[in-house]
Amino acid sequence: MDQGRIGNREGAAQFTALAGEVSVKRIVQQVASDPCNIRMHVQRQGNNIIAETEPVKDCTGNAVPDGTIVTFIQTGGAKGRSTVDARIKRGTARATLPAVDGTTISVASGVVLGNEVRLSGGGQ
To answer: Disulfide engineering: 103 pairs with which of 19, 41, 77, 82, CB 3.0-4.6 Å?
Structure first.
């Protein structure tokens, strides 16, 4: 390979293979790796909680591809445990969960666990 190198940013990478007088050029689309440092915020809307991530990126700052699954987990309270799998759309993932005081909502994708938010009687 000549002039080919994998970078740490998403986008097109160009490779040229040479064998004697023959050369073949290939362009490969690089995408982000697994999510890193997932952060979310929650907002109460009536009897529901809307949980939404900040833009999801990998550890080098590349946007994680749309369609990547993010799981929102609600634990505690009388209802036990609720989970919602949501796909990233336009950089963020969003889920609607029941508003149950005394529960904790966390977010994860793959093996990466994000922040947690505890719900109390007056809102967040």
So the answer is: 77
pLDDT at 42 over 80: yes
User: 33, 88, 76: which is closest to 58 by C-alpha?
Assistant: 33
Residues in the chain: 124
| Per-residue pLDDT at 87 exceeds 80 | yes
Do the beta carbons of residue 119 and residue 50 sit within 8 Å? no
Asked if 2 and 19 touch (Cβ cutoff 8 Å), the reply is no
- Rounded Cα distance between 1 and 67, Å, is 33
Q: Average pLDDT of the chain? A: 83
